[in-house]
Write a structure and sequence with these properties.
By secondary structure, this protein is of the alpha/beta class. Helix content is about 20%, strand content about 35%. The protein has 2 helices and 8 strands. A 4-stranded mixed sheet has the order 1-4-3-2, with helices on one face. It has a 4-stranded mixed sheet with strand order 5-8-7-6, covered by helices on one side.
Amino acid sequence: MTSTGGVGRLRSVVLDCPEPRKLAQFYLGLLGADMFSDEEETWVVIVDGDGRRLAFQLAPEYKPPRFPDPEASQQIHLDVLVDDIEEAEPKALALGATLVQPNDNDQFRVYRDPVGHIFCLMWL
């Protein structure tokens, strides 16, 4: 992979949500990350072992994406690589995920997090 010497580096992916701390707890369980900052009610950050940051920002008027809906977009989604989908899926569902599309032949399945953001569990 070649670096193009861009303007900057990605620090965080930020998700709007109605309850940042609650959604951060879901992603802590899903990704195995650590809580980095949760001192504010409006902004929570988690960090995984490789330093990747996922932040959660209070959006009082939050409306979830309408997926799958050809008239609306996902806006953004996360791809989460797992070793074994049959082991990972029940854990994700127990955390509060909802299965949206079981695409077994394509090596990914589509889910919603507890507030409606789309993410995929992918396997090789």
